């Protein structure tokens, strides 16, 4: 295993923390965006923000 300097370890740790933040806070908005972009299946009502909040 390669030896990493303390500075390199800190940079990698910060990179992983940023990645975790993006995944945690970006997953649900991405799923919602893709759902609205693709639209409803045939025979289903079109999704809208009000129907999501009401149900």
UniProtKB/TrEMBL annotation:
Key words of the record: Membrane, Mitochondrion, Mitochondrion outer membrane, Protein transport, Transmembrane, Transmembrane helix, Transport
Keyword match Membrane: yes
Entry membrane topology: Single-pass membrane protein
GO CC annotation: mitochondrial outer membrane translocase complex
Pfam family, one: Tom7
Location(s), subcellular: Mitochondrion outer membrane
Any GO BP: protein import into mitochondrial matrix
Lineage top rank: taxon: Eukaryota
Family from the record: Belongs to the Tom7 family.
Protein name per Swiss-Prot or TrEMBL: Mitochondrial import receptor subunit TOM7 homolog
Gene from which the chain derives: TOMM7
